[in-house]
Write a structure and sequence with these properties.
heterodimer, A: about 350 residues, alpha+beta, Alpha-Beta Plaits, 5-stranded antiparallel sheet, 3-stranded antiparallel sheet, B: mainly alpha
Chain lengths: ~350, ~110
């Protein structure tokens, strides 16, 4: 290594070398030494002076030796062995060394000390590299990856987990509900006779089937159509729109609308609703969330707009907190369909 | 030799002490290691070519590591996230392979 070390230093104090060289006579290996020598002040450097400080240079001496240096290339430690050589003329002057920082001074002592420090630093850095590599490898361990992840990755992971969590929770709720229903349905059926659930369900079905009068909040849609320009499609659309908006009971022109309700044209008269001939104005009474129903009818291009586009037709809506539908239906008696299972 | 010993010493120390890097260091450690590996390989190459210089190595090592870390930090700051660290790793990876091929030439060429 010594050969290497001198080179870096040399650029700083190239001038010195020629002056130093004179030493060759003293030392067998002076010739080599001079090159590495970084002595800034050739003039001051007297050979005698240099020699006078062998003690200091004893260590540096190692570097000066060419033979060893070449070997040393990789090992700073080996460089020290050469120290045995006579003290090289490293130190320019006694005074100088004190004044000048060690790095700058004599090639032998300063350079080698510096080189050794540098070598030490190199080794430390390599050790740090080994250490850091191990740490990095450990950090890459999957168990450690959460701590390592960037906020983005963590957020993405959190979202994914959250989504999983929600879908699993939903599934759990569904399955739990099914299980409860299965577990409780036999006893519920048993209790049904005394009342409770069965009565409530019967009421629900009665409302759906139109077999009982109902009241509640809702709205009344009146379609005036003196010129008979409103056809069945308008009312079918209205019916569909109202059902979408959550209507629970509907009466069209005095006919209770149920699942099987149909509307057809009756040319010259008006319309046919479930077989009943009706004529304008058509009044639809609807029970459900009044505001929602109202908005559903007022959607741009919706029922009200459609009616208004017909010749002479007008539609008006009146919402109410208490609306009553008295039109009834006979309970359906399915001839073919039977509950399955 | 001693260089390898130092490296091994570091590895052993790492294994024995089993430290965990502090969280804030996590994004930077990998690029720093890659940069350092690059510097070390470069050093091995110059050593084989008899051009090794401790100071040059130290400066290269520290400045490369620092630069790599700063680049990644910058990437984080301006919102590239890991992209810039990928860039750093790619660049150093290329350099490492280049150095490795030079090393091979030196070793086999002899």
């Amino acid at each position: 290594m010594p050969p290497d070390t001198p080179e870096p230093a040399s650029p700083a104090e190239p001038a010195a070398q020629p002056g130093d060289d004179p030493k060759p006579a003293d030392d067998p290996k002076p010739a080599e030494v001079p090159k590495p020598a970084e002595v800034p002040k050739p003039a001051e450097e007297s050979k005698p002076a240099e020699e006078s400080k062998p003690a200091e240079e004893s260590k540096p001496a190692e570097d000066p030796e060419p033979g060893e240096e070449s070997r040393l290339a990789e090992d700073p430690g080996t460089g020290e062995d050469p120290g045995t050589d006579e003290p090289p003329p490293a130190q320019p002057t006694d005074t100088d060394p004190s004044a000048e920082p060690p790095a700058d001074r004599g090639r032998g002592g300063g350079a080698s000390a510096r080189a050794r420090v540098a070598r030490g630093a190199t080794l430390v850095l390599l050790a740090v590299l080994g250490f850091a590599t191990v740490v990095a490898v450990r950090s890459a361990d999957p168990s450690h990856s959460l701590a390592t992840a960037s906020p983005d990755q963590l957020a993405a992971r959190l979202r994914a987990i959250g989504a999983d969590d929600r879908s699993l929770a939903a599934r759990e709720g569904r399955l739990r509900g099914e299980r409860d229903a299965l577990a409780s349905s036999p006893p519920a059926a048993a209790q049904a006779s005394p009342g409770g659930d069965a009565v409530a369900r019967a009421d629900e079905f009665a409302v759906l089937a139109g077999t009982v009068p109902v009241d509640g909040p809702g709205l009344e849609l009146t379609v005036r159509d003196p010129q008979r320009s409103v056809d069945a499609s308008v009312l079918v659309d209205a019916l569909q729109e109202l059902r979408d908006a959550g209507a629970e009971a509907i009466e069209i022109a005095g006919v209770r609308a149920v699942v099987s309700t149909y509307v057809a044209d009756d040319p010259g008269h008006g319309l046919i609703v479930d077989g009943m001939s009706v004529s304008p104005p058509y009044v639809l009474r609807v029970i459900g969330a009044a505001h929602t129903l109202d908005q559903a009818l007022r959607i741009p291009g919706g029922v009200l707009d459609t009616v208004a586009a017909r010749d002479g037709a007008q539609a008006s809506v009146r919402t109410s907190d208490h609306l009553r539908i008295d039109a009834l239906r006979a309970a359906p008696r399915p001839r073919y369909a039977r509950p399955a299972g | 030799m001693i260089a390898l010993l130092a490296l091994a010493l570091g590895v052993v120390a790492g294994l024995v002490l089993g430290p965990t890097a502090p969280g804030w260091l996590d994004p930077y450690l990998p690029v720093a290691v890659v940069a350092a590996v690059d510097a070390a390989l470069g050093a091995a190459r110059s050593a084989l070519e008899r051009e090794f210089d401790d100071r040059e190595f130290i400066v290269t090592f520290l400045s490369d590591v620092l630069l790599a870390v700063l680049l990644v930090l910058l990437g984080d700051l301006i919102g590239f996230g890991g992209a810039l660290s990928t860039a750093v790793v790619v660049v150093f990876g290329i350099r490492i392979f280049t150095t490795a091929s030079a090393l091979r030439r030196v070793l086999i060429g002899r």
